[in-house]
Amino acid sequence: MQLLEGGTVVDADGVLTADVLIDDDTIEIVGDASDANVDERIDVSGQFVVPGMIDTHVHLMMDARPDAESVQGDSEATLAYRAAENLRNQAEAGVVATRDLGAPATVAIDARDAVADGTLLGPRVQAAGQNVVMTGGHGHWFGREADGPAEVRKAVREQLKADADAIKCMATGGVLTTGAQTGAPELTPTELEALVETAHTAGRSTAAHCHGTEGIKNAVQAGIDSVEHGTFMDEAGAEMMAERDTYWVPTLSALKGIVENSDAGIPEQAVAKGEEAGQRMAAAWEYALDAGVPIAMGTDAGTPFNDHADAAHELAYMVEYGLDEAGALEAATVNAADLLGLDDTGMIERGYRADLLVLPENPLEDVRAWQSPEQVFLGGEQVR
């Protein structure tokens, strides 16, 4: 047993001065444990013990290179080695669970299994397998192309057969695919309905890449569980999402990576689309916050200049766009856990997994504290 002694616990319930006793992979005591018979005492006085971050949108096979489409030339073995490195970087940065939303073949699903059996060091992984995308649509080069409700239903069933944890689709065009129109609808309402129905019947959650206003509404009306990006969200779309408890995963890190590195080798068409999207994001945040849309943290890590090791920057970006520090904490912990269906992480309570960070400052006062964890515990195992 390990005892984190003398620190301040900070989670979605608030702030508490307390010891945290870890028994194997589980939190056993949150409170006074000074008399406990333990194997190791770790002095965290003056520091802050928080739940680990959950990143609900990553691409493990991508490496933040300027031209994401150039990954097409890499073998599945190369993608797998890269995924292993990215998982290690996530873990050391304080990410304790992650959701891969699109990779060729079974690269992400195999990475999930390798973490689960101890072959790889990394956060727990949920994997969506291949994205379901219209022929020639956004991300077609690593997705499963399908047209019409019947083909979409079959494409979903193929991902279920491969043991995907979630189903991801491309409801609109995107920034990083040559020729795609960022906000234009791609999958039709009937195709989206077929996707959601098939996934939900099998007990799997769904996520939709959505930039454009119409595509967002199509996905929400179809019953999608999370809207990814949501760049051109309008007031009506935000109200629809809030009414249906549809999660928004804004992935600000992806836009920041493009806009702030526009002269660093990113294709010109991607820069132009990224800059247009960036100009619209402030309004989307205003509508979402006013409507009370539930928000979960997701980085889209792997896209240009958006490294898996920098997940915590997403929290600072969310605060920059109007979320307060407590809201950022919730987005990265309890909200993200709820979206992924993880009922054993995201809080510091007895019986929860010991997925913990020790921070030098109070993240409710300085959101940048997430960027410098002193210690990281994954299921009770100290990895930093």
Automatic annotation (TrEMBL):
GO terms of molecular function: hydrolase activity, acting on carbon-nitrogen (but not peptide) bonds
Residue stretches making up the Amidohydrolase-related domain: 48-383
SUPFAM superfamilies recorded: Composite domain of metallo-dependent hydrolases, Metallo-dependent hydrolases
Pfam families in alphabetical order: Amidohydro_1
Source organism superkingdom: Archaea
Gene3D superfamilies reported for this sequence: Metal-dependent hydrolases, Urease, subunit C, domain 1
This protein's name: Dihydroorotase
Biological classification of the source: Archaea, Methanobacteriati, Methanobacteriota, Stenosarchaea group, Halobacteria
